[in-house]
Amino acid sequence: MLNELITIFFFSGTGGVRKIAKELEKQCKERAFQTDLYEIDSTYFKLDANEIDENIKKSRYIFVLFPIYAFDAPQPIFQWIEKTKASNENVIVISVSGGGEVWPNIGTRFNYITALEKKGFQVIYEKMMVMPSNCLVATNNHAAMWLIKVIPEKIRKIIEAVLSGKSRRTKIKRKTIFQSWISRRKKRCS
User: Fold this and answer.
1) pLDDT for 117-137, tens place per residue?
2) For residues 148 and 127, what is the distance between their CA atoms, to the nearest angstrom?
């Protein structure tokens, strides 16, 4: 594992996904991986795209993390796909939501994974992580504390599953595809 590269890309609107990405980076480094962490924000698109694409080609795994916004991935995450060169690298997609693994949120990953696969990436693992809700309904303080406290354990389990070769893909149902179509249409109208 020493000197193998893991590249992590993330978008974080309010800081929750950043916290998860930093924990992922920390645990990868503890396992002796070389780790590159990129926050997809306004400064990211000013970086040398060729250098980033070279890192992607060298990576054993690429992690992509994002929060769910209006039942879809945020626009900067889709912009990242557009600007990234085609690759057949192994990708792990982690979406983050206050609602958890419910069908509208699964549709979110379906849209994003479809875009990744059209670009040539091999999505080998997908997972939803639950963080305290900060939209519409607030999570009570006690529950929020526990959701944050278990982040290291959840990340440990994801890393162990990926390193052991476990594949995790969600079976898509018709209502998930319908929901993903609705969220894409909604984005075009706004």
Assistant:
1) 998 899 999 998 887 776 666
2) 16
